[in-house]
Design brief:
Elements (H helix, E strand, L loop, with lengths): L1 E9 L5 E7 L27 E4 L4 E3 L11
Parallel strand pairs: 2-3
Antiparallel strand pairs: 1-2, 3-4
Length: 71
């Protein structure tokens, strides 16, 4: 399950920059705020958003608007 840690800001394109925490790297990374526990609305996840795990794996949304690989 993926949960919200922080909502940073709404971006000019209407997306939301968020910081998330996932149970593991096998969780599906969300493309929309309504897919995240603790968030709502039909806003896309924006550039610069991040998702981490308790093991400190991290994935970021790149300039193309897509999640990168877990690192």
């Amino acid at each position: 399950m993926i949960k919200v840690l922080d909502v940073e800001r709404r971006l000019p394109d209407g997306s939301i920059r968020v910081h998330l925490i996932a149970d593991s790297t096998s969780d599906t990374l969300p493309t929309n705020c309504k897919q995240v526990t603790g968030l709502g609305g039909d806003y896309p996840i924006g550039i610069g958003s991040s998702c981490i795990t308790a093991s400190l794996d991290i994935a970021l949304v790149g300039a193309n608007g897509k999640w990168g690989e877990w690192q």
